[in-house]
Amino acid sequence: MRQQIAGIFLVISLFACSKVMAQADISMSTHWYNRANYNPASIARTEYIYLFSNVRQQWIGVDGAPKVFNVQASEYIHDLRSAFGISLVADKIGVTQAYNPMLTYAYRISNQHDWSMSMGISAGVFVRSVDGTQYEAVTTIDPSIQYSTEKVIKPDANVGFEFQNNHFILSLSTTHLFSIYKSDSLFLNSNHRYGSLIYKNSNPDLFNYHLGFQVVNRHNLTVYEGNVSVRFKHTTGLIRGPREIFDLGLTYRSSQQATFLFGLNISQNLRVGYAYDQNLNPDYRTGTHEVMLEYRIPSKAASTRCQCENMEYWYH
Question: Is residue 316, in this structure, part of any structural domain at all?
């Protein structure tokens, strides 16, 4: 029954007509660790070359369920007060396949001793293809189903701003700028608006923690999301302080979804993570797995080595 419902949903969502809703941004649970997909300003991390990747399998047990692959790399150059990044998102759901390669640039507008303000922009293309030959319709002569193969390539861009100090991160961004004021279509990702506020505290000797709240708006749909995460540390007795070991987190969305997050610091600069989403709708309970890999290559020229006593200041 669950597979039949999912199949009906996929077919309805893929009708290539003027009333089809534009596609949504990829869904990720580990965006609390890396905000670059939604806000390009966040790549202005001044301590290291940053590598991030995650894989997401939604709707466990449902044929044609979404699969997402995401990989990113960025580096901050202190002399230019600029960060440069590259990313690729691959998203497959049912008979559709989408690719979204982007180049990202972020500039640190203000780089004070205890706070910073950055802006960023991402530019690239959005490629979506629909392979109608994969349809398995009950009625093969249904005129509303197109059995041909279609592919469309469109320009894409995101823009964002981010303020950060010792305890707060304020993030504002908007994605898919070229779809603003355009009618919806199957081959268009709709414009999204993001706003988030994170409170972080790394002062306790045995753990760090953060509290986060995010609002996402798309058309007439608004989703609220809250997150709490605790990162446990081990005291080393060294001047540089305790070593981070692992973190646990919980997220709840107003779309009736809850997420459990787990991260493990294999070394000081290598972390792996896992997230499990659970749909709380009693009529459609499905789970989602997501695996994350995060790696840092420290930069000896990092500005925070001179400005910030707490070396974890920008690592969030």
Answer: no
